Amino acid sequence: MKKSFTHSALRAVILVAALSAAGVQAQSSRNLAPGFSNRPAGSKLVIVPADMELFSISAGGVSEPRADWTEAAQRHFLAGLISRREQMGANVVQLTERDLDELAEINNLHGAVAQSIFLHHMMGGINSLPTKNDRLDWSMGEAVNPLKAKTGADYALFTWIRDSYASNERKAAMLVMAVLGVGIAGGAQIGYASLVDLNTGRVVWFNDLRRAAGDLREAGPAGETLDALLKSFPAAR
């Protein structure tokens, strides 16, 4: 009896482990393009300045841009990326804001492609595109050629972020409405990150972030946002 119980328990543990591994693999494969797993050792990565904007939400729910918050967030975000050398790899180049002025259309294109990937692939369901067959199969095409020519990089990391925070007036309104049994939204953090093969234009890795938490205005919390957005980011091996 004891032996039978032990074998049954062992089989249960193995089954749970197998299901967990399958879940992790399925999630990982959902973030990766077919046939891609990691960047080749020695490949060059260019970090494109984040397409980022931070907002304050007024008492009435109007989102008001905050240039000072955005500027601070850009600094914290870039510093956090640079500090993640193990993730980014040894061969990394950064674009400056001046460089990006010449390549603004590429960043705009990434924003459109990233939102399409989120809607049709990451959310899926009724939004899925039958022709994609539930695969990460998106490309920025020849639009990335100028970025390849300028940097000589093999891959580019693009990020798109919109972050909002409830003002004191909004927080007060939220408390009043909560007493009345009505919930109104505060801030939200929305982000997309894409690794693009500059030789083909193909998006080979993608991750998204949508939550009512996080804060990019301070270095510490900004690092946590980066950890969440770059979860499963492909290493150079």
State the gist of this model:
By secondary structure, this protein is α/β, with parallel strands linked by helices. Helix content is about 45%, strand content about 20%.
Fold and architecture overview:
This protein is α/β, with parallel strands linked by helices and 237 residues long. It has one domain (32-229): Rossmann fold (3-Layer(aba) Sandwich). The chain has 8 helices and 7 strands. The chain has helices at 2-31, 67-83, 85-88, 97-102, 104-123, 145-151, 168-179, 219-229; strands spanning 45-47, 51-57, 63-65, 92-94, 155-166, 189-197, 203-211. Strands 1, 2, 3, 4, 5, 6 and 7 form a 7-stranded mixed sheet that branches. Helix 2 (67-83) crosses helix 8 (219-229). The N and C termini lie far apart (49 Å). Residues 1-27 have low confidence and may be disordered.
Question: Notable features of this structure?
Answer:
disordered N terminus, Rossmann fold, 7 strands, about 240 residues, 8 helices
What sequence of helices (H) and strands (E) makes up the elements? HEEEHHEHHHEHEEH
Q: What is the number of strand segments?
A: 7
- Level-2 CATH architecture: 3-Layer(aba) Sandwich
Number of domains: 1
Question: What is the rounded Rg?
Answer: 21 Å
What is the fold-level CATH name, i.e. the topology?
Answer: Rossmann fold
Structural class, from helix and strand content? alpha/beta
Report the end-to-end length measured between terminal Cα atoms. Answer: 49 Å
- Describe the global form: globular
Largest sheet: 7 strands, mixed
- Strand fraction band? 15-25%
Give the low-pLDDT segments. Answer: 1-27
Q: Number of helical segments?
A: 8
Helix coverage percent of residues? Answer: 40-55%
